[in-house]
């Protein structure tokens, strides 16, 4: 946990708005105070071993990043004086279409994608996605959010990704994708193709990544009809959770 992520409910009522800039003749704003009792308290107590007076990096979910000073440490809670003063890092100019991985890999892949700066993610169906994966409890909104929080904490970021589920491939590709991917570079990662994945592109991109068994030819054709170009990463076939960081660091090396 490289960043303690705070949500508005952690703050004393009304205190959060006091962090917004005030006119110069206004007296010093009241400090904003956050009280933590859950796994973040445990982490601060057991890993940071923080004492009163220590400071740590904190961020408000979908807000700024700053410092939290420990002003009180109880048996089951910790109180921080919070000052938020810098923006989170920019997200990638990317919409990621990811064929739904098996639940264990889904969790890791969501964490990696979030840590790498993905802000728009569509989990899509494909012929080789097992139907049972769509019943996974890990697809519940709160469970996906948990994985995103872990990725944000890891990468020192606060901007929550938006995740959408699309359980039918054909209607998604035919009816929704053209608008969604409009004016973007459209790529489908596919090992069996002649073009190598481009490097350091400076443009909005829509990237499709297949399931463990790969996209079937029909799906690659449908994506190509929608304007997607197939690109490879060399002769080694990588697991989805490995292919994704390789693709993103190749496409957006400086981000
Ligand atoms: N046998 C499958 C195939 O040939 O498509 C392998 C699928 S791979 C385990 C899962 C996904 O990761 C692929 O659909 C693709 O999107 C991506 N991937 C893995 N290795 C890749 C490579 N060398 N080039 C391009 N994409 C790759």
**Mean of pLDDT:** 93
At CATH level 3, the topology of the largest domain is: Alpha/beta knot
- Strand elements, count: 11
The helical percent reads: 25-40%
Structure description:
The chain is of the alpha/beta class and about 260 residues long. The protein has 2 domains: about 5-85, Ribosomal Protein L25, Chain P, CATH 2.40.240.20; about 95-250, SPOUT methyltransferase, trefoil knot domain (Alpha/beta knot), CATH 3.40.1280. The chain is built from 6 helices and 11 strands. It has helices at about 40-50, 105-115, 140-155, 170-180, 215-225, 240-250; strands at about 5, 30-35, 55-60, 65-75, 80-85, 95-100, 120-125, 160-165, 185-190, 205-210, 230. A 6-stranded parallel β-sheet has the order 8-7-6-10-9-11, with helices on both faces. A hairpin with a 4-residue loop joins strand 3 (about 55-60) and strand 4. Helix 2 (about 105-115) crosses helix 3 (about 140-155). The protein is elongated. The two termini are about 20 Å apart. The model has no long low-confidence stretch (mean pLDDT about 95). The protein binds S-adenosylmethionine. S-adenosylmethionine binds next to helix 6.
Task: Furnish the topology, listing elements before pairings.
Blueprint: E1 4-6, E2 32-36, H1 39-48, E3 55-60, E4 65-73, E5 78-86, E6 94-99, H2 103-115, E7 120-124, H3 141-155, E8 162-166, H4 169-180, E9 185-189, E10 205-209, H5 217-225, E11 229-231, H6 240-251
Parallel strand pairs: 1-3, 6-7, 6-10, 7-8, 9-10, 9-11
Antiparallel strand pairs: 2-5, 3-4, 4-5
Helix pairs in contact: 2-3, 2-6
